[in-house]
Design a protein that fits this description.
Shape: globular
Oligomer: single chain
Strand order of the largest sheet: 13-14-17-12-20-18-19
Number of strands: 22
Distance between the termini: 31 Å
Largest sheet: 7 strands, mixed
Structural class: alpha+beta
Low-confidence stretches: none
Helix content: 25-40%
Number of helices: 13
């Protein structure tokens, strides 16, 4: 068994491996000649006070101890194995397909969007021409929303499955081993496409299938059992096991299920704005004025407050990133943020969102699964109108929002389609705007300098999670009424990011494998 040691060092000492090993061995009371191997197991930043330090967890193996190798993905030929359908090629769908191969099942993946390479053209059209392709955008396509939306791998869902295995599979497909070490691992939008392509190629080489431009338009259900699926309204395929991993923005899937009387439920979600500061401002605040240390990465932040009975918190914080247009239909605007692997853009952005429960909404009735979705859609449409009915978004300086005055001008922002001045107090629903205003005052006290006239609010940040859940049996992971249908990942309400979605995809296949006694 290895020995774990906690160690605090200065950022500039991180590259001094001799110093780290000497300090760790001394603290562990292990002589250097008794050590056969060692590694930094976890790495995080402690910026609570000056000087900023690096917190390390060091793992040491003595001469008689054996270091276990990384979990590599184990492929096999599944071309003649039992078939399962996987709807969606996001992290839940891809990991479900990989786990199926490992378990001896043949995955057939149907993705409504395009492959990662082809998606780039449609993203360029959103940014430059403000044209939204409803089937290929920041949310739909190979890799899902995470492909071009940062690649953050941090998750609190450690009890749901094997997070380390999911991360090690990413390393197997080409990710840097740093993701196994960093407290908040991140790949970067510029590197994710290559990894996802490698996953797809592995699935196909093993005998699985991946179909693009293949949209689920119907389910064949007989006596509460899945019998097949319909793709693009005309192609019928027989399946008895279907993993539904369509993501949080596939609204047509919710409507299709409702029309077929498949049980759905309204689910809490969060909605607000995406705020952008200069990265050097966040560095100055978080690092106590230490802005020029080359050994410190661009600073992140996490904020939360309870305001008038609702939680208000930062979401998907992107150091050194940009704000992107993430609409999935023409008459709506949606913002999100991402960072390249180096996080070297001059801006820092984060969603600041208000938690919304179904019962908080004026049109709430217990039997309406669409109450949160309708609220989300309404806000996105109103913001589209306020932005000039293009992919420009309504925006406001942070201090102007708090004062309730329309901004006369703006600093440059990273949002490429552009911004339009608006009083977001009037654009956003009162239950959102009133709490955001109080939250910003609260956050300005927690982080002096955060409440700034040079910070710009972009509205809305609305796709934080699915506003609908598809209920499933806790034991079999099948839908509570439809056998053979496995609601999976963010779109079904069982994940909140890349890693938790990946783990849920693995778990759904494990449940199917149990059926087949594999």
């Amino acid at each position: 068994m290895s020995t774990l040691i906690s160690l605090n060092i200065l950022p500039e000492e991180l590259e001094n491996t001799d110093l780290i090993l000497r300090s760790a061995s001394k603290k562990a009371n292990i002589k250097p000649d008794q050590i056969s191997d060692w590694r930094i197991r976890k790495r995080s930043i402690d910026a609570r006070k000056k000087p900023v330090k690096m917190q390390l967890q060091i793992e040491i193996w003595k001469t008689e101890e054996q270091r276990e190798p990384l979990n590599k993905f184990n492929s096999q030929d599944v071309s003649s194995c039992p078939r399962i359908a996987i709807i969606g090629a996001g992290p839940a769908g891809l990991y479900a397909a990989l786990r199926a191969i490992e378990a001896g099942l043949k995955p057939i993946v149907f993705e409504r969007g395009k492959d990662v390479r082809e998606r780039r053209r449609d993203l360029a059209k959103i940014n430059k021409e403000q044209i939204v392709n409803p089937e290929s955008n920041y949310c739909f396509g190979e890799g899902g929303a995470g492909t071009y939306s940062d690649g953050k791998l941090y998750t609190r869902s450690k009890k749901r499955g094997n997070v380390l295995k999911a991360l090690e599979w990413l390393v197997h497909f080409g990710a840097d081993e740093d993701i196994l070490v960093d407290a908040h691992p991140h790949i970067g939008t510029n590197k994710l496409p290559k990894l996802i392509t490698a996953m797809r190629e592995t699935i196909i080489e093993a005998g699985g299938e991946v179909h693009f431009d293949s949209k689920l338009t119907d389910l064949k259900i007989e006596e509460n059992r899945i019998k097949g699926i319909v793709i693009n309204e005309t192609q019928m395929y027989e399946f008895t096991e279907v993993i539904l991993a369509t993501g949080h923005s596939a609204r047509d899937i919710f409507y299709m299920l409702h029309d077929k009387q498949v049980k759905l439920e309204a689910k809490p979600f969060a909605l607000g704005v995406r705020i952008e500061h200069q990265q050097e401002v966040i560095n100055y605040i978080q690092y106590h004025g230490e802005t020029n240390n080359p050994y410190l990465p661009p600073a992140a932040y996490s904020l939360v407050a309870q305001i008038d009975g609702m939680g208000v918190y930062s979401f998907c914080m992107c150091p050194g990133g940009i704000i992107a247009p993430c609409a999935t239909a023409q008459e709506e605007v949606v913002t999100n943020g991402w960072s390249p692997s180096k996080r070297n853009n001059p801006y820092a952005n984060s969603g600041i969102v208000v938690s919304v429960e179904p019962k908080d909404l004026p049109n709430y009735t217990p039997d309406d699964p669409f109450v949160c979705l309708n609220f989300q859609k309404e806000v996105e449409h109103i913001c589209w109108v306020a932005g000039g009915k293009t992919q420009q978004v309504p925006a406001q300086r942070m201090t102007d929002f708090v004062k309730g005055i329309k901004s006369k001008d703006f600093p440059k922002t990273s949002y490429q389609p552009g911004i339009v001045s608006a009083d977001l107090n009037k654009v956003l629903p009162h239950l959102i705007a009133s709490r955001l205003k109080k939250a910003f005052l609260n956050f300005g006290k927690k982080m002096p300098g955060y409440l700034s006239k040079d910070a710009v609010l972009h509205a809305p940040e609305s796709r934080t999670s699915s506003p609908i859940s598809i209920p499933r049996n806790n034991e079999t992971l099948e839908h509570v009424e439809i056998h053979g249908l496995y609601p999976c990942g963010e779109g079904a309400g069982y994940a909140g990011g890349i890693m938790s979605a990946a783990i849920d995809g693995i778990n759904c296949v494990d449940a199917i494998a149990l059926k087949y006694k594999l």
